[in-house]
Design brief:
- By secondary structure, the chain is mainly alpha-helical.
- 63% of the residues lie in helices and 0% in strands.
- The longest helix has 24 residues.
Amino acid sequence: MPGLLQTCEELFSTRDLYKVIGVENTASEKEVKKGYYRMSMRFHPDRNSEDEKSTEKFQALSKVYSVLSDSGKRALYDESGEVEDEVDVDQDRDWVSYWRLLFPQVTLQAIKEFEQKYKGSEEELEDLKAAYLEHEGDMDGIMESVTLATMEDEPRFRGLLQGLVESDALPDFAAFSQEGRIKKQHRKRKAKKEAKEAEAMRKELGMDDSDDALKKMIAQRNQSRETGFNSFMADLEARYAPKGKKTKKGKK
C-alpha cells in the first residue's frame, strides 16, 4: 500500500499536500477546510459513481485534509515534509461519512442563498478557469464540473472563457474554440432530456419546494442511478445529502 505522499504524486502530480487542495502553506484552518471542500466536490463519489479514479482522488483528498487539519500532524509535515506513519493514515476509514460530518445538512433556503452568492462570483470564475484547464476546453466536462452549472449558464461561461483566451489568460484549446455544432446540440438535447426526467420524477413523487422534497429526490436518485439528472441536482446531492445517510467508499 503506497504512502499518502506517493499517492498524491500519482494522482495529482505533486507531493505537496497544500497544492493538492489548492491552498498556500500559510493557509488558515478555515482556508484549508475550504480548499478541501472545493477539491473534494469535484471528485465526490455521488457525482462520479462510475469513475474509480475520482473515488481514489476523493479518498486521497480526505486523507490530506485529515493531516492538515490536525495541528500536530501539520506541524510535523511543515517541518520535515513527511507524514507521520503515512502508510497507515486511516486506510479503511469511511471517507464519505467523514465528509458528511464536516459539511452538515443544509436547508433548501440555504442552498438558494448560496446559489445567489456563488453565481457570478470570483469563486465561480476560479472554478470555471480550473475546469477549463482540467478538461482542456471541453465544454461537456466544464459544464459537469462547475458547481451548480446549468445549460442557462453556458453562454455566460463561454463568453467569460473566450475573453480570457483572447487576453492570453488561458490557453486556446481546440476543443473549445473549434467545438462543432453537432456536439453543442447534443449537449443541449441531453440537458433538456435530464430536466424533463427530473420534473417527471418530482411530479411522480408529489414533491414541492420543501426541504423534505429535496431529501426525497436525493434518496430517489441514489436508488435509481439510471435516471438522468442535470448537473445542478448532482451538485445538490454532493453538497446537501442527508447527514444520516451512510455511504461506504463510494458504493451505493
